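Any chance you'd type out a single protein's sequence alongside its tokenized fold?
>
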Amino acid sequence: QVQLVESGGGLVQAGGSLRLSCAASGSIFSVNAMGWYRQGPGKQRELVATITSGGSTNYADSVKGRFTISRDNAKNTVYLQMNSLKPEDTGVYYCYANILPLLTTLSPNYWGQGTQVTVSS
């Protein structure tokens, strides 16, 4: 069984910072790409940032220069450092990881439970 556990959400004023963490655990053989999506009130879920196992990153235009994604492969953990937060960054943030579990050849995407980020103006 594989699970992703997120932490680090909360309430912050505009211009502030938050750091999200997401740790994968369980019967894992390897972890490929990891990343973050978010869903704002009344909006569709959108990609925020991704990072490959080799460290290549990709960001949504709306967060470039403000957010930084990183990972610790030894801990199977992905981080999202969010600076200069804006009210429009408010939403539920979901981490995902493409994981190859033990004793299988399939590598589906696994999802965290979501963590609320609220940015007040």
The CA atoms of residues 85 and 118 lie 9 Å apart. The two ends are 41 Å apart (CA to CA). The chain is about 0% helix and 60% strand.
